[in-house]
Amino acid sequence: MTQQTAGIHHITAFVKSAQDNVDFYAGILGLRLVKKTINFDAPEVYHLYFGNEVGSPGTAITFFPWETARRGRVGGGQVGYTTFLVPTGSMAFWEERLNKFGVEYKRVERIHETYLQFTDRDGLQLELVEREGGPASKWAFGGVPADKAIKGFGGAILYSVAPDHTMAVLEKLMGLTKVGEENGLVRFRAHGDLGNVIDVNAEPMPRGAGGAGTVHHIAWRAKDDQDHRLWQSRVAQAGLQPTDIVDRQYFHAIYFREPGEILFEIATDPPGFERDEPFDALGEKLMLPEWYEPHRAQIEQGLPPITVRVLEEDK
Questions:
Q1: pLDDT at 189 over 60
Q2: 3-state SS assignment for residue 89
């Protein structure tokens, strides 16, 4: 059988304010901040991970908050919309919640499903969809009870400068199956139960520009290190020039840019976010890889303080 990814592992984006980021994704959307660390390639910048109770693969959206970042432009070579999956029957709750916090949204019908589309404070394009599949989140925070909580990713809409090539990579390399086409979008499905529905804009999109409010990369799941090494070999055989395997502490990663100019990562499911913090303390302390520990005081001094807090509207 052809090697197949189960779906999205995580999605990583740029934003400006770290506290605004925490307030939106934890305070409004009710996700758990499961890891507070740094960009290993730029230690003066946080790397914040939000997800379900443990940030399971398929649930983690991650951010590089940079106060001086320019505003990006969503376009070709990027994830256009990040789709979150919510429990069946919870859409009215989410409409009421977005209204309560003044988040403007619109209802969109796409391939026999209803989506709520909105943006975060930096303009990152998000949407919610109800589906039966995927394990329920066990996390409750602020005004979001566990039975209404975001389960993880539903999938994404990809904006490509060369969609035929992007779709070929999804189907022939990543092992997704084409399952539908409607109103200029082509739908693919992976075999997992989270982050498994990928829509591709069928027409080439004008190139986007990186910056706050845009996605940096989309990561796909590898089962383990053995599976990961095989992915690296297969990407190389496809002529897509994967990077060396990089240790990201909570997963191993390779990166490559597919022909539609979207940056793809393939990341291992293990070891996960509990490798260096107990469940009850996830996301509370700034966690640094060992090579940065000698510089902890300097790094902490340069980072703005952030607090996970229940927002006034929920008190």
A1: yes
A2: coil
Q: Does CATH number 3.30.1360.40 belong to domain 8-314?
A: no
Could you tell me what percentage of the chain is helix, strand and coil, using 3-state DSSP and rounding each to the nearest 5?
A: 20, 35, 40
What is the rounded distance in angstroms from the CA atom of residue 3 to the CA atom of residue 192?
Answer: 13
Across the chain, which distance is largest between two alpha carbons, in Å?
55
Q: Is 283 left (phi over 0), alpha (psi -120 to 50) or beta?
A: left
Which tens digit of pLDDT belongs to each residue from 253-304? 999 999 999 999 999 999 999 999 999 999 999 999 999 999 999 999 999 9
**pLDDT value of residue 1:** 52
Q: For the residues 183-203, what does the mean pLDDT come to? A: 97
Which residues lie below 8 Å from residue 49, measured CB to CB, with a gap of 6+? Answer: 10, 33, 34, 35, 36, 37, 55, 60, 61, 62, 250, 273, 283
Q: What is the Cα–Cα distance from 180 to 174, expressed in whole angstroms?
A: 17
E strand or H helix at 156: strand 152-159
pLDDT in tens, 73-98: 999 999 999 999 999 999 999 999 99
Exposure pattern of 27-65 as b/e (b: 16+ CB <10 Å)?
bbbbbbbbbbbbbbeebebbbbbbbbbbbbbbbbbbbbb
